[in-house]
Amino acid sequence: MFKRMLICLLCLALLVPSALAETPTLRILGWVDMDGYTDAQIEMLDGEASFDEIANAIAIRNDQVDLFILPAYSGLYSLKKHGYYTSLDDSEVLTARLGDLYPAFQDALTDDEGHLVGWIVSCDLIGMNVYTATLEENDIPIPSSFGEMLDACKTLLETDALPSDQSLMGYTGYTRQSVLDLYMTLYVRSGQLNGGTVDFTAPAFKEMVERIRTELPEKDPFKGDYPDWAVFELDRGYMELEEGMVFLPPVTADKPSAIEAWMTIAVINPYSANQDAAVALLEWYAQRDNVERYVYDASATEPVMNKGIVEEIETMQAEIARLEAIADPTADQADELTRLREECARLERYRWRVSAETIAQYREQTDGLCIAEASPVTYDEALQTAAKRFLSGAFDVEGFAKECQNHITMIYLENGISMN
C-alpha cells in the first residue's frame, strides 16, 4: 500500500513541471492593462512599440516579443501597408467582434484586403471644453461651426468682454498662424471622412483661410502669463463617454465634426512562438465588458449605472423613508431629513456612468470619427511651409490653394491612394 502511494506521489511530482510549462509567458513590448487575465504569464518589456521598432524586429526575425502595443499614430498605416503583423482572420471571436465596431475603427483595424491586423486595447477621443458662462454673459451662442467659433472670438475682442485672466483658445493660441494650423489640420482630417479626398480648391476653404489671414492678430491678445482657462480649450481628452461631450466644430457645411481618436492596438509578432496564446489574450480583451469600449463599440448600447452612487442613493432613501415615518420629528430630525433629500437629489445627477442620452448623442456624431494612424495624407511639413508663406504674403489665396492641392495630389499618387 505504501509503495503504491509513493509511486502516485512521484507521478504527481513529475506532472507539476509539465503543467507549469503549459502556461505560456507572453512578452509584450509596450504597456497594456492586463488586470484580471490569468491564462498566461505576462512580461512587460522595457520600451514602446512604434512602426520603426516593429520593422526592425521583423527584419531580424526577432522572436523575443510576442505582442507589440502600438499607438496608431506611431505608424499603423505603414504597418498595414508592409504587412508587419499576424492576421487575426482565423479568430471567430475577433472577426465577429470586428463587426460590432463603429466603421472608422473597422477600417483602421483592417488592411486594404480586409485582413484583421490587431485589436484595440485603449482609445481616447480628442475634444474641447467650451466655457459657456463667458458666451452666455455676452449673448453669444455656442458655435456650431469653425466660422462661428471665430465669430465668437471676434465679438469678445471687439467688445472688450474677455476677462483679463481668460484666453480665447488656451495653449493653442489665438493668432493667425496657430488658428490657420488648426484649421488646416481639421480640414485635411475632415476631407478624408467616409472615404472622401481633400480638396483645397473648394470655395469654402479659400474663404476661410483668407478670413484667418485678414482678421486674426499676429500676436495672441491674452493679457496674462499662463492661459490657465480659456473660452475654447481645444485639446480635451475623453477616455470614456461623458455627459455633454464637445468636439471641435465642423470646418465645412457638408462634413460633420472630425473627431480624432487616439487608438492603441495590440499586434502579434509573425515570429512569435506563442501566437495561439496571444490570440487568446486578444479574444479575452475583445470580450471585456468595460465602459471604455463604448468609445469604439457600436454594439454597446445599454446605459451603465454608477454602482457606488446608486448604493449611496438607496441607503439615503431608506433613511429618508425612516425619518418620514416619524410622526413628531425633532428639529434635528427635520434638518437631517432636509439635508438627505437635498444630497439625494444632488447624487441623482451622477446615477449613470454612461447614460442613454450620452450614448445617443455620441452615436449621432460617429460619422466624424477619424483614427490618427500616421497616414501620409496629413497636414505635413510641406503644407505647413505653404501656410507660413501664405501668411507672409508670398501667395494670394488662389496661389495658396493651388500649391496645397498640387502637393496633396502628389501624396495621393505616390502612395497609390485613390482620389475618386
The helicity comes to: 40-55%
Beta content:
5-15%
Task: Please give the alpha-carbon distance between the first and last residues.
Answer: 83 Å
Biggest sheet statistics: 7 strands, mixed
Oligomer: single chain
- Helical segment tally? 15
Tell the overall outline. flat
Order of helices and strands: HEEHEHHHEHHHHEEHEHHEHEHH
Instruction: Please give the radius of gyration in angstroms.
Output: 28 Å
Work out the number of β strands: 9
Task: Characterise this structure.
It is built from 15 helices and nine strands. With 420 residues, the protein is of the alpha/beta class. Strands 1, 2, 3, 4, 5, 6 and 9 form a seven-stranded mixed sheet that branches. The chain has a two-stranded antiparallel sheet with strand order 7-8. Helix 8 (176-191) runs antiparallel to helix 9 (203-215), helix 8 (176-191) crosses helix 14 and helix 11 (307-324) runs antiparallel to helix 12. The model is unreliable at 5-20 (pLDDT under 50).
